[in-house]
């Protein structure tokens, strides 16, 4: 049992990168550049998909939503982190902390579920191409995306309520650069065993279901691709999945590390480093992966640039 002290906390101190005082100016520049590239990259992907009629397919509809989620997720964390890097002492109220945690968990869950939906989309496209337009109708795609946002909202409400049902006493220094679940669990002066079980169980269930969908989809996809006789056909099929698979590996590697594996196994310093990758780098890298490794997007981008230069 943790020590209980009846002095309740009304605000938290965000330690952020205060232990790296000599590097804070450099970190500010790096994070700012990452954030600008994230916004520009994801807006570019959304814009290209919207204006190019050849990209009006379910795959790119889901990619548009993924880019939107990446913009929102990065915006929920990075601007505040940038401001904190310029302040000697950064504080955040309980309400502000709860709001930040709510949006972050909701958006992270949405990204996780969208990657599962995109894997199913690739399965139908490659393994049942003749039924693709019948199965992946516009109505069904919209229903899938709405389902993603509903599940994300409910999960975030449960997780945020679970964390802020704990008691916070004298300790109020968050050893992180934003309000996240692992550091908040460490600050509580009440018994957090059940709270940790709820966190790991909910995260584990969502991640497990999505990973099963992705793994099964890709097993069937790879089997179908290997049966294609022409090397050109196999290459084209693989290329349509390469971008998504790269994003899946990057996203779930960090997600499992932070939220599914018990936090006691790793130091908060390591969690903080991985969180930078998770909250800042991945949203920036995703549009690069989908633009550099996707011929359709590259062609659409080329057309936009050619049209712009001709004007």
From TrEMBL:
Q: Which GO terms describe its cellular component?
A: plasma membrane
For this protein, the parts annotated as crossing the membrane are 26-48, 60-79, 99-120, 140-158, 197-226, 238-261, 273-292
Q: Which domain of life is it from?
A: Eukaryota
InterPro entries recorded:
GPCR_Rhodpsn, GPCR_Rhodpsn_7TM, Olfact_rcpt
Report whether Ligase shows up as a keyword of the record. Answer: no
Where in the cell is the protein located? Cell membrane; Membrane
Domain (G-protein coupled receptors family 1 profile): give its ranges.
41-290
* One GO MF term attached to the UniProt entry: G protein-coupled receptor activity
Concerning PROSITE patterns, the annotation shows: G_PROTEIN_RECEP_F1_1, G_PROTEIN_RECEP_F1_2
Q: Which UniProt keywords apply?
A: Cell membrane, G-protein coupled receptor, Membrane, Olfaction, Receptor, Sensory transduction, Transducer, Transmembrane, Transmembrane helix
Q: What is its main location?
A: membrane
Provide the topology term for how it sits in the membrane.
Multi-pass membrane protein
Family, similarity comment: Belongs to the G-protein coupled receptor 1 family.
What PANTHER family does the record tag this protein with?
Answer: OLFACTORY RECEPTOR
Q: What is this protein called?
A: Olfactory receptor
List the top taxonomic levels of the source: Eukaryota, Metazoa, Chordata, Craniata, Vertebrata
């Amino acid at each position: 049992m943790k020590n209980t002290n009846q002095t309740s906390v009304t605000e938290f101190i965000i330690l952020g990168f205060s232990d790296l005082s000599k590097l804070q100016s450099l970190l500010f520049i790096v994070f700012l550049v990452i954030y600008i590239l994230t916004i520009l990259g994801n807006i570019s992907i959304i814009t290209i998909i919207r204006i190019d009629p050849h990209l009006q397919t379910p795959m790119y509809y889901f990619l548009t939503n993924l880019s939107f989620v990446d913009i929102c997720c990065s915006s929920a964390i990075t601007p505040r982190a940038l401001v904190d890097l310029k302040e000697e002492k950064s504080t955040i109220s309980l309400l502000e902390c709860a709001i930040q945690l709510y949006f972050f968990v909701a958006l992270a869950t949405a990204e996780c579920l969208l990657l599962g939906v995109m894997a199913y989309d690739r399965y139908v496209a490659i393994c049942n191409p003749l039924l693709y337009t019948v199965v992946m109708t516009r109505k069904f795609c919209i229903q899938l995306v709405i389902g993603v946002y509903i599940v994300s909202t409910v999960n975030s409400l449960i997780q945020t309520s679970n964390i802020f049902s704990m008691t916070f006493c004298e300790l109020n220094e968050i050893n992180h650069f934003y309000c996240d679940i692992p550091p908040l669990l460490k600050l509580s002066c009440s018994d957090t065993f059940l709270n940790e079980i709820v966190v790991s169980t909910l995260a584990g269930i969502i991640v497990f279901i999505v990973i099963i969908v992705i793994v099964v989809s890709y097993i069937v996809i790879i089997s179908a691709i290997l049966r294609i006789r022409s090397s050109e056909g196999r290459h084209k099929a693989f290329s349509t999945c390469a971008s998504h698979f790269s994003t899946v590996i990057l996203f779930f590697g960090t997600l499992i590390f932070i939220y599914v594996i018990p936090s006691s196994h790793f130091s908060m310093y390591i969690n903080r480093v991985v969180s930078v990758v998770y909250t800042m780098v991945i949203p920036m890298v995703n549009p690069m992966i989908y633009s550099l490794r996707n011929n359709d997007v590259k062609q659409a981008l080329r057309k936009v640039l050619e049209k712009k230069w001709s004007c």
